[in-house]
Amino acid sequence: MTAPASLSVDLNALSHNFHALEALTGVPVHPVVKANAYGLGAVPVAKRLMAEGARTFFVARVNEGVALREAIGPEPTIYVLDGCVGDAAETLKAADLRPILNHADQIAAWRTANGGACGLQIDTGMNRLGFRPEDAPEPLDGLDLVMSHLACADDPAEPMNRRQRDAFAAVSARYPNALKSFANSGGCFLGPDYAFDAVRPGICLYGGGPEGRPDARLKAVATLSAEILQLRDLPAGETVGYSRGFLADTTRRIATVGAGYADGIFRSTSPKGQVWIAGELCPLLGRVSMDVIAVDVTGLDVSLGDRVELFGANRPVDDAATAAGTISYELLTSIGNRFERTYLG
Ligand SMILES: *Cc1c(COP(=O)(O)O)cnc(C)c1O
């Protein structure tokens, strides 16, 4: 039986995006594969990127790092953005993970554990994780990476980008032996002086644009599709779905498609949502329910069992996210477990 709903991950497109970011920045790309590689599968994604030349990865959580190490073997360097949290030092060491140390307690815990190799985060304005520049610690043993994170990289016109970049350049110079890592996906597109020694993209590897809209330099990696479960002709005057969410003023042809909010199709997608089928973008009608959505396919040649693209090459994930009032990151990391995952390439 072929799965009625599937997530297809195009590893060749992933590889294209990886090399596009390398070419754009001129420095090594250190992929961010946190949150299961933004929902696409950290292990197959990391393995393909290793085959393309990636040697260093970032995850957020310690447990993500442990699982990744187990899967990809001892060679690649893995940094954990949360750092040395609580009593994680021994777990980090056992899996040869390098914490990004964010505050003095983390440095103390790592030192006490004789932790070894680690990174350091400087907070240049995000006010989230990391040392303020004026509190930046002395270089510590094992420090091999210093990083900071942009708050507004998706908006090239935002003057804060330059301020953060200059602050990072100044403070990171105090760590001559550490690799300097600054740019996330958006930062890769801000110009050569944002690249430093290595870049740290996530979303652009996975096909999301750096400014929240599709970018022609990147290819779609994730395609989410689901099957038409039923077709009906809706007489004028009748309604569709919960709370009579759509009222037909003319006769419509309705496809009921097997994906709903339990699959990560945001309820906020109606009324602006669209899906792609038979060469056209078709509107969602009424409310998204848990397992199904209703699609207006009036006038189209579609049959039971045909597949609707929720996002992918024909319906960019950025556009689907905008329609739902969110960002591509949230759509990808919300993809439900009921989709069968398949990998191309
Ligand atoms: C998630 C994350 C990234 C990747 O961000 P993208 O915008 O997806 O490229 C890079 N650095 C840090 C610190 C992050 O938390």
Give the helices and strands, then pairings.
Blueprint: E1 5-10, H1 11-25, H2 34-38, H3 42-51, E2 56-59, H4 62-72, E3 77-80, H5 89-94, E4 98-101, H6 104-112, E5 118-121, E6 143-147, H7 160-172, E7 179-181, H8 185-188, E8 222-234, E9 239-240, E10 246-247, E11 252-257, E12 274-277, E13 280-285, E14 293-296, E15 307-311, H9 317-323, H10 328-333, E16 340-344
Parallel strand pairs: 1-16, 2-3, 3-4, 4-5, 5-6, 6-7
Antiparallel strand pairs: 1-8, 8-11, 8-15, 9-10, 11-14, 12-13, 13-14
Helix pairs in contact: 1-3
Family: Belongs to the alanine racemase family.
EC number: 5.1.1.1
Protein name: Alanine racemase
Tell me about this structure.
The chain has 345 residues and is an alpha/beta fold. The chain has ten helices and 16 strands. The strands form three sheets. Strands 1, 8, 11, 12, 13, 14, 15 and 16 form an eight-stranded mixed β-sheet that branches. It has a six-stranded parallel β-sheet with strand order 2-3-4-5-6-7, covered by helices on one side. It has a two-stranded antiparallel sheet with strand order 9-10. The longest helix has 15 residues. The two termini are 22 Å apart. The mean pLDDT is 97. It binds pyridoxal-5'-phosphate. The site of pyridoxal-5'-phosphate has 11 residues, from helix 8. Its cofactor is pyridoxal 5'-phosphate. GO terms for molecular function: alanine racemase activity.
